[in-house]
Amino acid sequence: FIIIVAGRIDVPATAEHADHRPKPYPIHFQIHFVTNLASDGEGTAVSGRLSYDWTLHAQRIDHGAGAYECKLFYDTEGPCSLIFNNKGMYRILSQSGTPCCLDLPHIGPPPPDWASNGTYNGVVHDVVSGLDADEWIFDNVDISIDAEFHTCRQVAHGGHEGKPLAFTFPGKARGRQDYYFDVESMVVERQDPALFTLANGCADLLCEDHFQEVER
Q1: How confident is the model at residue 50 (pLDDT cuts 50, 70, 90)?
Q2: Predicted model pTM
Q3: β-strand pairing of 58-63 with 46-53
Q4: Concatenated DSSP letters for 92-161?
Q5: Contacts of 22 by beta carbon, 8 Å cutoff, 6+ apart
Q6: Do residues 178 and 40 lie in contact, with contact meaning Cβ atoms separated by under 8 Å?
Q7: Phi-psi region for residue 41, left (φ > 0), alpha (ψ -120 to 50) or beta?
Q8: Which of 166, 176, 191, 213 is the 20 to 30 A CA-CA neighbour of 32?
């Protein structure tokens, strides 16, 4: 999930930091985030929510109306939701298209240590949250887009140290697709299985509109 919306602090990723790894996700939690902010932090934020439960092998992402991802991939101004399970990623729309279908087969929820293969990039100051963050870039597994890569950030120090702070996407979105997490909202607890329940007839229904049509 590299658009840098941060000012670098002089903490280079030298050999002494080579083994600095991100803290794994809790096995179950929920956290709120915002998207639709440009790479300089400007713009009108759209709220969202991430629900994760590795014991259920499930993840759900809820985007509010007007979210960049909903517009780009599903051509809707309304809200959209993504549910990940062992079969893949399902998309749920409320205002257009097929209400629920399998959009990306075999793209399931990430394991708690999904970010462990990132390359440590030092400490950055995240302009959205105002917090210092450890940052990792995925230059070893990503295909570069204009010399940019996916990145993830975790709070570098203080009472929220290690909590997820941001996940950024490279490419033409220029920051608007990036997720900026509200660390104060994070609740670590088992998630209600109903959050990940698909509507009748959805589990085996492949999406036809926009399926593999938009470059991701």
Answers
A1: very high
A2: 0.84
A3: antiparallel
A4: EESSSS-SEEEEEET--PPPTTGGGGSEEEEEEEETTT--EEEEEE-TTTSPPBTTB--EEEEE-SSTTT
A5: 115, 116, 118, 134, 136, 152, 154, 162
A6: no
A7: left
A8: 213
